[in-house]
Amino acid sequence: MSDDVLAESSLFAALDDGAAEALRSSMTEVTLERGAVLFTEGEPGDRLYLIAEGKVKLGATSNDGRETLLAILGPGEMFGELSLFDPGVRTATATALTDVRLLGLGNADLRPWLTGRPEVALSLLGALAQRLRRTNEAMADLVFSDVPGRVAKALLDLAERFGQPLPDGGFHVVHDLTQEELAQLVGASRETVNKALADFQNRGWIRLEQRSVDLLEVERLQRRAH
Ligand code: CMP
């Protein structure tokens, strides 16, 4: 377990080493293989999870069976807290995009930290507020931006989370998504998303690979995203 990942997560950010160790010891490690489902939308939930290694996708299904991806999360990020703070059922299905290692924290174990250490509650609120901002922005983009603009934005967002700098500028981004999943993340059909990606590639802005992409012309993508 990498201590850096824990220290940077909102759950641990406000704690000193001793307190962090105490919290860590009340968490249970869960490992999943790529493709495994951790929990399903609609089932009751009583614990949140922190990602120690790997990536998790959060997806929701519409009444007519279409799937959308709400978020792709990576190391240090937390999910599953909504059904703790607002008791109810899981609002999304969590699936391992890669092999993953998670730390689970049950409601009963989290509660004393929230009431006894206000700084933990505050940093969790910060994480929730950040998520709401992102969701609002994504909702506005669905209304105001065209598909290529949303594709450019999704690529830049993935680069910010998972990108590694390339020697000649730009980023190598291992996203672990299929083209179908990328389309679900953007909220458009696979055909339109593929067309936008092919156009970006023809212009030399990106280089597409299996489950990864190189962003070569970041500024142009940024302009296209706005
Ligand atoms: P919960 O409802 O317990 O289970 C599904 C989890 O997905 C939810 O908690 C949140 O942690 C997470 N989630 C739901 N909606 C979003 C969103 N729009 N962006 C990021 N994460 C989300």
How is this structure best summarized?
The protein is an alpha+beta fold and 226 residues long.
Strand content: 15-25%
Separate helix tally? 9
Q: Label the overall shape.
A: globular
Note the run of SSEs as H and E: HHEEEEEEHEEHHHEEHHEEH
CATH domain class name of the largest domain: Mainly Beta
Q: Give the proportion of residues in helices.
A: 40-55%
Quaternary assembly:
single chain
CATH superfamily of the largest domain: Jelly Rolls
Look at the structure and give the mean pLDDT: 91
The small-molecule ligands in this entry are: adenosine-3',5'-cyclic-monophosphate
Radius of gyration based on Cα positions: 18 Å
CATH architecture of the largest domain: Sandwich
- Judged by helices, strands and strand pairing, the structural class is alpha+beta
Distance between the termini: 38 Å
Unreliable stretches covering 5 or more consecutive residues: none
Largest sheet: 4 strands, antiparallel
Count of β-strands: 12
CATH topology of the largest domain: Jelly Rolls
Provide an overview of this structure.
By secondary structure, this protein is of the alpha+beta class. It folds into two domains: 140 residues, Jelly Rolls; 80 residues, Winged helix-like DNA-binding domain superfamily/Winged helix DNA-binding domain (Arc Repressor Mutant, subunit A). The protein is built from nine helices and twelve strands. It has a four-stranded antiparallel β-sheet with strand order 1-8-3-6. A four-stranded antiparallel β-sheet has the order 2-7-4-5. Strands 9-10-12-11 form a four-stranded antiparallel β-sheet. Strand 11 and strand 12 form a beta hairpin. Helix 4 crosses helix 5. It is globular and about 55 Å long. The termini are far apart. 34% of the residues are buried. The model has no long low-confidence stretch (mean pLDDT 91). Adenosine-3',5'-cyclic-monophosphate (CMP) binds next to strand 5, helix 3 and helix 5.
